[in-house]
């Protein structure tokens, strides 16, 4: 089981292949996911501080480019399947934004 270290919080465990956004939410992180995990809104962004989050897919690359997000370590947590230990920092959260988190992403 991969370990996810969220900056400023205790480490959590994720099921092999689980979407990062679901691992975060299921472990009490108030991560946003306004589009329901469909790589359309970028509200579930995380900064990958350590570890290999895997390749960036076409949909993720397209929306990041469209939204002007060019930092190589910023990824969409709804598009990351956890296979390795990671250290991440959520960019947007429910508590920081005051927004509704959005429809729960499908696994």
Could you characterize the architecture of this molecule?
It is a single chain. Helices cover 19% and strands 19% of the residues. It has helices at 20-26, 58-66, 94-97, and strands at residues 3-6, 12-13, 45-50, 74-76, 86-90. A 5-stranded mixed sheet has the order 2-1-5-3-4, covered by helices on one side. Strand 1 and strand 2 form a beta hairpin. The chain is globular and about 35 Å long. The mean pLDDT is 96.
Measured by DSSP, the beta-strand proportion falls in: 15-25%
Q: What is the first-to-last residue Cα distance?
A: 17 Å
Major sheet: 5 strands, mixed
| Tertiary shape | globular
In which range does the helix fraction lie?
A: 10-25%
Order of strands, main sheet, comes to: 2-1-5-3-4
Structural class: alpha+beta
Order of helices and strands: EEHEHEEH
| Cα-based radius of gyration, to the nearest Å | 12 Å
Helix run count:
3
Mean pLDDT: 96
Number of strands: 5
Unreliable spans: none
Task: Give a brief rundown of this model.
With 107 residues, this protein is an alpha+beta fold. A five-stranded mixed β-sheet has the order 2-1-5-3-4, covered by helices on one side.
SSE blueprint and pairings:
Blueprint: E1 3-6, E2 12-13, H1 20-26, E3 45-50, H2 58-66, E4 74-76, E5 86-90, H3 94-97
Parallel strand pairs: 1-5
Antiparallel strand pairs: 1-2, 3-4, 3-5
Features:
alpha+beta, five-stranded mixed β-sheet, 19% helix
